[in-house]
């Protein structure tokens, strides 16, 4: 099964998994670049999953707007190409991969959890271009997209 995982954040990334191989399209994500990537790698048989995330407490309005704009761009491009997609909450795909998630209502440090997800993805996909990604946000976007695509391939 071909699966596409999309982390639509400010540092966006999409990863296609097919037969144990992957192709990635990461930041910056122009609508044209998204179309080129999707047209080259995705067809109507691909399961497409976009992470459904909500804003963070104390997130500045311009940042929240930019995040929503990026998510909307993915929706528009996928729709224009006639590709169906599913929105998946982080808790759904993370639980589906048996990854540790914070207990509901528990306080936890977001960066600690992000670093853990990056470590998991690096173990599974050690040949991904991790060293080229200089910030935790960029490594996190790639890790999330890889893991979302992996979850989608499990047929959850």
What's the β-strand tally? Answer: 5
For the termini, the CA-CA separation is 13 Å
| Secondary structure category | alpha/beta
- What is the string of SSEs from the N terminus onward? EEEHEHEHHH
Task: Tell me which CATH architecture applies here.
Answer: 2-Layer Sandwich
Helix-residue proportion: 40-55%
Rg value: 15 Å
The biggest sheet, with number of strands, parallel, antiparallel or mixed sense and barrel status, is: 5 strands, mixed
Query: Number of helical runs?
Result: 5
Overall form: globular
Strand content: 15-25%
For CATH, the homologous superfamily is named as Ribonuclease H-like superfamily/Ribonuclease H
Give the strand line-up of the largest sheet. Answer: 3-2-1-4-5
Low-confidence stretches are none
CATH topology-level name? Nucleotidyltransferase, domain 5
Whole-number mean pLDDT? 85
CATH class: Alpha Beta
How many structural domains are formed by the residues?
A: 1
